[in-house]
Amino acid sequence: MKAYPLQFKPVLKQTIWGGRLLGERLGKPIGEESDYAESWEVVDHGIDQSVVTSGHLEGKTLKELLTDHNEWLMGEAAQDHFPLLLKYLDCNRVLSVQVHPTDEYGATMPVPDLGKTEAWYIVDAKPGSVIYAGLKSGVDADELRAAVEEGRAEEVLHQFEAQPGDCVFIPAGTVHAIGAGLLVAEIQQSSDTTFRLYDWNRVDANGNGRELHIEQSIEVTDFERGPVAPIRTDPNAEGWQTLVECDKFRLRAISNGTGTVGGDNRFHIITIPQGEATLVTESERLPLTPGTSVLLPAAHDAATIELAKDTIVLTMT
After folding, report:
1. 3.30.360.10, 2.60.120.10, 3.40.50.1970, 3.90.79.10: which CATH number matches 241-316?
2. Is-contact 101 220, C-beta < 8 A?
3. pTM for the model
4. Which of 3, 15, 57, 285 is most deeply packed, by most CB within 10 A?
5. Could you confirm whether 232 is annotated as catalytic?
6. How many CB atoms lie within 10 A of CB 118?
């Protein structure tokens, strides 16, 4: 079967911390609402499924492609589920402080799931917006528990002011939160396993706070990790910059000229958070605008990405 770049209908999520940037900056169909928080671009997780929007596979879910055309899609990474999930996040308000478990812990849960290692690329940041990534040096379980129970968790969290172009790598076991005023591209393992450690003492209209998982959070926290520093991208660099390379995924960025992707018997996710580009294959020239995401099947030949000025393209595999 001939391989072609797959595009999908986004799976949109509304939460209390969302806003309007998914529509205004990335062209997502959010209507007049002002609480859209997440756009799941490429996903195969339970009932949340990417659906192909063009070509001879139009209407197929990602799960159906895995079932019917596994080697064509996955190549040497063949498995019965798609291992990665790409999202855009509009963080109009600060997110809760969270921690995600490892695969080993996830497998022991009542409803088994993968753990979650993830990385963030900061698309835009309002002045003063912060990222909370890791604990301050030397913080142990007792100190963390006391800070949470006394409503002062921010005192033990490492934080820094976020800048557009920053990348933040969050391995499983890292305590973290995304601050208000950030537009983020997130690549993660395909998992929805999250333990909420702290929610900034927020309550709803009835005076009720959201459920916390303090003991589970502390159980899965890696207290050896300490503070997490941002990975700064170089906007003037030529060619691909590798931002994260771990046992779960590789994340790369390009901001100048042209780049080649695919042709290596592996799937590749491509997304464009900023600017304009063209994906050039043997049979088509596919325009890429802000918020466009594409899945290149493993069976696809190498393709070229041509970037306009002030453009960022991310790839994940």
Report:
1. 2.60.120.10
2. yes
3. 0.96
4. 57
5. no
6. 24
